[in-house]
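Ticket closed. Logging final result for N-succinylornithine carbamoyltransferase.
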Amino acid sequence: MSLLKGNTFISALDVTDINALAAKALAYKANPLTDKKLGEGKRIGCLFLNPSMRTRLSTQIAAQNLGMEAIVFNVGNEGWQLEFEEEAIMSGTTVEHVKDAAPIFGKYFDILAIRTFPSLVNKEDDYSELYINQFIKYAGLPVVSLESATLHPLQSLTDVITIKETFKEQRKPKVVLTWAPHVKPLPQCVANSFAQWMTEWGEVDFVVTHPEDYELDQKFTGNAPIVYDQDEALKDADYVYVKNWSTYNDYGKIYSNEPEWMLTQEKLKLTNPANGGAKVMHCLPVRRNVELSDEILDSPNSIVTQEAGNRVWAAQAVLSELLKK
Ligand code: CP
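Final structure:
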């Protein structure tokens, strides 16, 4: 049975069995080259409309492990500026319509992987996933999200496998997603996506904590408890996932940037003391001593490097499922 419902990977809802997909990723971690002939003669195009380090490198390594050729194109810096609106009169700065560009990618590649971004200005466009959906509509290829306007599914699958491989007890771990301060308004993608995957996975007790007015779209948080008191939320946590996001309701704003929301060793004392306190996760890049303190990032509680390393296996599991279709 395929672990993906169709030919796209843009959300947890595209997966038939999250636990099985995570197990597959961990199997690739144990034996990276076991399917090295699966993608022979196939090519993946990795299109970036904004910057990336981990996603770009891990996706290429994953493709190579499956025998695929990976071609990276930094559309944002090196390509023509794309237009996404239907029936646009292109008398402004955009040079090429996605309707013309995407079918060409369809001629060059077997799988298209795309990183888009939100405007943080037009909520309706961002939450309709205008950019990635236009690529899906016009490319006629399997499409993998390398982060979109509202979600970051390869990151979240990575987060699932990182929890799965590090939690050894016969109970559900308590996982807390906590808002953290930042110097500029950031997308809600990683937080939305983490919430969606934790909820859909169903193997954790999931709690979200943030200052009032930073509520995420309930479509992603589901029935997870929202706790405004960070100390209360952290009690007995096994994992703390740290991330900043800008406001969703009054879209794309920073209301408050209280430094006291930055996780410290003192706050970690509230978490489950077994094994030296909660494990701390972050998707990276991270602003040290703004989002997360040196004392946390440089401590044994931090598993951010292990988490980033696991990006390869998440990408490999997803590409493998698409290649088998
Ligand atoms: N976490 C993540 O997506 O990192 P990059 O932006 O460097 O790809």
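The chain has two domains: 8-151+310-324, 155-309. No further action required.
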